[in-house]
Design goal:
The chain is built from nine helices and seven strands; from the N terminus they run H-H-H-E-H-E-E-E-E-H-E-H-E-H-H-H. By secondary structure, it is of the alpha+beta class. It has one domain (16-209). A three-stranded antiparallel beta sheet has the order 1-3-2. A two-stranded antiparallel sheet has the order 4-5. Strands 6-7 form a two-stranded antiparallel sheet. Strand 2 (72-74) and strand 3 (77-83) form a beta hairpin. The termini are far apart. Bound molecules: iron/sulfur cluster (2 copies). The site of one iron/sulfur cluster has 11 residues, from loops.
């Protein structure tokens, strides 16, 4: 099932994952709400900490199948939603002097799960180990200093639980984005970023009422 028998990891705080200019720090609606809550942000401030990474060309159906997070329709075309970057390509929330994340407790699931990625292997399985596959991401294999032979073996169950929560979150996010994209395609919504964020904030309001 998994490509490795055991997985080893202990973060060495090298910062490579947070400063990788070729990586988009993807966020789901839940990540956005968590960060908003932690920092007490209003809509304009949320907009400020996010970037909408526009596709240079329309992704093919094949491309879309490979995407972990679905692209959203915006006024400038399809885009991935991610955290803002500094001019050198680092994550906006990375503190270079302290070598740490400034929103560690509220960081996106994308960051929490690094250096691993997860997929449902058998959703009917009762045991997490049989249900979810875990593997090192390609980026982690390239530069993560925390996954060497000398690193401790991970608590696989703990990571698989995180993987499950993350996959469920991605699934909900997928449906929200599909709904938004359909509304835009049917011209029921103006495809601007503020409207997209308003929809996400409405989800929070509905949660609070229930
Ligand atoms: S949110 Fe934090 S952990 Fe995630 S990339 Fe940015 S600085 Fe790194
Ligand atoms: S690349 Fe690996 S070791 Fe370096 S900060 Fe990220 S998780 Fe930690």
């Amino acid at each position: 099932m998994s490509e490795e028998k055991e997985f080893r990891f202990k973060c060495k705080r090298c910062g490579s994952c947070c400063t990788d200019k070729n990586t988009i720090v993807n966020v789901t609606y839940n990540d956005i709400l968590r960060i908003k809550e932690a920092l007490g942000l209003n809509l304009d401030e949320i907009n400020f900490i996010l970037s909408f990474y526009i596709f240079e060309k329309e992704p093919t159906e094949e491309d879309k199948k490979k995407m972990v997070v679905s692209p959203v329709e915006t006024e400038r075309g399809k885009a991935f939603v991610g955290l803002k970057k500094t001019p050198d390509g680092s994550c906006y929330f990375y503190d270079k002097n302290q070598k740490k994340c400034r929103i560690y407790k509220a960081r996106p699931n994308f960051c929490r799960t690094f250096p691993f990625s997860f997929r449902i292997y058998d959703k009917t399985a009762k045991k997490l180990e049989k249900m979810i596959e875990i593997k090192y991401t390609e980026k982690a294999k390239q530069y993560c200093q925390g996954i060497g032979e000398e690193a401790p073996i991970i608590n696989k169950k703990k990571w698989l639980k995180l993987g499950k929560v993350t996959l469920e979150d991605l699934n909900k996010n997928y449906y929200i984005i599909q709904k938004w994209n359909k509304a835009v395609q049917n011209k029921e919504m103006e495809p601007n970023v503020s409207n997209f964020l308003r929809i996400i904030l409405n989800i929070e309001e509905k949660r609070e009422k229930n």
